Every structure is written in C-alpha cells, then in structure tokens.
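Justification of resources, computational component.

The compute hours requested in this renewal are based largely on the per-chain cost of generating structure records like the one below. Each record pairs the submitted sequence with a full structure-token output. That output is archived, and it is also reused by downstream analysis tasks.
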Amino acid sequence: MRAKDESPVDTGTEAADPTAATVVNGGDRSTGTEAVDRDRPAVIDPTGTDRSGAGARVVRPPRRGSSPAQRSSGPLPTAKSVRRYWTMIIVLSVASAGIALGILAWDNPMPITDPGFWLIAELRLTNLVVIALVALCQSFGTVAFQTVTNNRIITPSIMGFESLYVAIQTSAMYFFGVTAIVELKGLVPFVVQLILMVGLSLALYGWLLSGRHSSVALMLLIGVVIGGGLGSVATFMQRTLTPSEFDILSARLFGSISNSDSSYLPVSIPLCVLACLGLYLCSSRLNVMALGRDMTSNLGLNFKGELIRVLFFVSILMAVSVSMIGPMVFLGFLVAMLAYQFADTYDHKRLFPMAALLGFVVLGGAYFVMKNIFYAEGVVSIIIEIVGGGAFLLVILRKGRL
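The structure output for this chain reads:
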C-alpha cells in the first residue's frame, strides 16, 4: 500500500499576503504580520546573527520623518560640550575686556571726555601690552611643553630659565655694583638675556635629543640639575652683597610688571607673535604627539624633529616672558590646568585660545588687585605663587586626576 505524501504543499497564500514576512533560518520557517510593516519593507542582513544562533536577521530602517542619532568623534563630540566651550570663551573675553578697561580707567583723575584721560590711559597701555604678551608666552609655552613631555605637572621652568635670569641679575650686581642693575634695563641687555636663554636651551636640546639614545626624561633631569646649580651660585653671590645691594636686587628678582620697559616691545612682540603662530600651526601635530612617542612614529611623524621644533618655540616664549617681567614659576601651570578643565578637549586649536584668555584674566586680575587695592605697584608674583602653588599641591594630592 502506497503511503500518502504528508509534506505540506505551498499554496502561495503566504506570498500573496502583503502583511506577512517569511525569514528562513537554518531550514526553519516563521511567519508573522508583526515582522514587517507594509510601509517599511524588511531588509535581510546576512552578516548578523540573532540570539538564537540563526544566520540572518531582520533590520528595519527608521520610520519616515525620523532622523537617526548623529554621532561625532571630534574634539567637541556633543552639543553640550560645544555650548560649554563657547560659553567659557565668551565669559573670559568679557572678563578680559573688563580687566583691560579697569587697568586703563581705574583711579584716573580726569573724566573720560577730557583729553587728559587718554594721555593717562596711554601711559598705562604699556603695562597692558606687557600683560598680554606674558599671558600669551606662558599659556602657549606651558601647554605645548606639557604635551611634548606627556606630563601635566611640570612646566618649562624646569629647564632653568628662571634660574638663569636670577644668575644674570645677581652676577651683574656682584661684579659691577648697583649701577649695573640700572644698565640692565636697556634694549641691548634685554637682547643679550634672550640670546643667552635661547642659546642655552638649544644647546641642551641639540645635545640630548640628537643622539641615538635621546630621552626627554634625561633632558628634563639635566635641566633640573643646571637650574639647581645656577640657583646655588646665585645664592652664594647674594650672601656676599651688602644689605642695600641685596634690597635693590630682590626687587628685580620678583616677577613684576614694573620690571618691563617700553623699549623691549619692538623685539618682544614679533618674537612672541611668531612663536605663538608657529605653535598654533603645529596644533594637529601636537594632537598626535600627545599620544606618545611610539604612536607618533607609527602614524608617520618624525617625533624627534617635531619635538625639537616645539621646544625651540617654547624656549623663545619663556625667554621673552622671563626677560620682560622676571620669574613667574606657577603662572603657566595654573593657566594650563584651568584650560584643560574649562576646554575639556584634546585639540590644541581650542586649548591655546582658552589658555591665552585665562592667562590674561589671571595675570591682569592679579595686577589690578595688587596695584589698586594693596598698592604694591604691580608685584603680581605674590598672588600667582600662592594660588598657583596651592593648585599644584592639589593636583599632586589628587595624583594628577584633575
């Protein structure tokens, strides 16, 4: 007796139903009206697998009129971060304008409509330009230096710029007397100090970074040793000075806006602008160098060449800053730390403007407070050292997690 064929016969009813979808996974057949919408045809993704281990899955496109969520991996990935960044830029710009206006107009005895008001404002304009230059030098130099050394705690001061400045001032007083301090305020001594500082840094970079076993850590350690040695020599010479000579010298060793002179500006302004522009144009390379030496080399950049170039610009900026107003150890660290927190991005094209505005607000605000409240005639290093030193200790105690 012949057995009947009990296998189901496809009558075509499923294919005729436009609201049903059939997905075959490993020989299984499932049909349901909920699988596919009439207006949204099903798309089979042969590369995906569902939780049941099947070899295909249904991927439904978004409904009509709806847009998929936008994703971004840029320096400011979310709309909130973009708003935060530009809000901080606007706030700092307004604060900078207010501080600049306060420096020019505060305690001005003449009314603003009187021509004498503008004559007094012009006399104060030199100090305002000096503050802007020092803020640019410290902010750009410190951010770039911390990037290439891959360390957010150290500053360019570790290379001995301040110690060299102290040694030059002390040596002039020790060998030539009080008159040498007055003579060191001209344009020629200023240029000589710049050449000595930049030359020392270039000699150090060229010696320690040109060999086969070049090391940034070794360069920093030797910079610390040189700075300590210069400081010890300067301290020895200071102990042999008379009280009156030491008192005059101490006034020059504090970071003060009054140490600057208008004759420095024709040299310092072009150097500052060129160095800052060079670092800003290297922003993309600095973003890569922040990944480390090995990753930078793997991505095709000459790490050693880029490192020497960046350090050359940093040495120019630090030499200009120290030669103009004197040592300012924690200003760069404070500005860079705040810039990292407020900008919240890795992109140096956005970090540099933020750091520059913060530098002007911090330095200009300290100058305004010391000059108009404490009548300290522009000695700003006191507030900078207190606030910056406290911030440094906070970072150390938090193990650099700020």
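The beta strands are 21-25, 28-32, 43-45, 57-59. The chain has one domain: 79-397.
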